[in-house]
Amino acid sequence: MSEKMSLNKKMEELDKKTGWFYSDDFKLEESAERYKDAMALANDIKKDLNELKNEIEVLSEDFSK
After folding, report:
1. SS3 of 23, please?
2. Is pTM beyond 0.70 here?
């Protein structure tokens, strides 16, 4: 089983994926598939951030009591 990628690693990977669109390696024929791949990763990052936000809110409530 592979290790779960950390949020920082996911963001680094997304940066690489989106950087391709601005690179000399860009090929229009590959753009749709790479866009879908980057969007899936971005949605995964968004989910992780929402979970982290919820966890922080719960911790904040606990400390405010």
Report:
1. coil
2. yes
- Check if the beta carbon of residue 38 is closer than 8 Å to that of residue 62: no
For residue 45, the SS3 value is: helix
Residue 51 · residue 43 · CB < 8 Å: no
Cβ density class 32-50: b for 16+ within 10 Å, e for less: eeeeeebeebeeebeebee
Nearest to 10, CA basis, from 46, 64, 57, 50 = 46
pLDDT bin (cut points 50, 70, 90) of residue 41 is very high
> Which residue matches tokens 């989910």?
47
**Can you give the residue ranges of every domain in the chain?**
25-65
CA distance 57 to 63: 10
